Amino acid sequence: MSQIHVTTTVNGDEVEFLCDPRETMLDVLRDRLGLTGAKEGCGTGDCGACSVTLDGRLVCSCLMLGAEAEGREIGTVEGIATDEDLHPLQKKFIEYAALQCGICTPGILVATKNLLEKNPDPTETEVRYWLAGNLCRCTGYDKIIRAVMDTAAEMRGAS
Amino acid sequence: MRYHTPENFEDASAIAAGADGVTRFLAGGTDVLVQLRSDMVTPDDLIDIKHIAGVHDITPLRDGSWRIGAAVTGAEMSENALLGQAWPGVVEAMDLIGSTQVQGRATLAGNLCNGSPAADSVPAMIAAGATVSVIGPDGSREIAVADVPTGPGKTALKKGEVVTAVNLPPRGHGGGDAYLRFIPRTEMDIAVVGCAVSLTRDGDTITAARVSLGAVAPTALLVEDAAKALIGSALDDAALEALAKAAEAACKPIDDKRGTIRFRTHVAGVLAKRAARIAYDRAGGAK
User: Model ipTM?
Assistant: First the structure.
């Protein structure tokens, strides 16, 4: 089976890879590009652990083929911090202990960063609906929601 | 598996028409990729239609109708304020499907072509009187959405035919639509029952109506008796009761883990009444 040559942008950097036509973007990120932040939870688009942005739009990378990335822009959790400086969301997640095992955390960070870019002042209900597709089996969500609400307030105050 | 990215629908159709094995068109991929990865459906040819010009466009036409390209996502529909004013029921039905992540990819055309009896957007499109534009080996044709599903996972589309766009008719003055579904939680679930109502008012009187039910039969249903119960009324209690009875009578549901026959039939009547009230208020100018 011949491989497909793909040129795409990941976290602002142009990258090239060869992939099998059946290979998902998630597998490409993890196995070919060494970006293991996105996780495979369910592989069916239900859990959100593989969340990335595609041209600024939140998607599940398990429901996207690597070949579909041609000419597009992918954003992953690895692109959220700037050098040694964590993103305000990452700092708040640590402060609030909004994670335990951490499998869901990269997806939730990508999803909530995407939400706050579109809506800097979400209600708690809006945050909860936005994250309906990000499942967490440890924290019970409350600390996650509080961390996001506090980050949003802090970022509004800083800007 | 061969992955194709045709530049136009004629080529897309020709690839599918000439293929010997299993063929799938790829738009959002939220069903196709799940089927591929679970080995339910392994296409020999996967035809990605997203490189075709116009497939990402939501176009209001001069006569008031709408053309929604086959790769337009649910998120793009929800962000289009004018579409939401014209056909709020269609937009809210699409918006109920899946998570934020799924909304970023899933499409109306894909929801229809996947052939699920519980597809949320399909009753809303049927109530709206929507059609799909199709290109195939024998040229192009337009099919009513109501005529596309023929059974679970099955559609009336022939080998080599591909949906290019969904067409919504002009909403016109005094029109409103609504879609409601029952699920045992608030998000991320498959409809136990879905109901869409689209109607037109002249003053307080309903002059035209279409009622569609999902998840209560092998395909979404257009329930003409339910529409008749509404037409000519001012949505009084007698009309609502007649609507509920007609909706219940149309149900041919299955018993499964998500709902019994009795429960689904009852809920169909309840949702029909509630959706009719919302559509009626919207037709009267309510936001």
Answer: 0.96
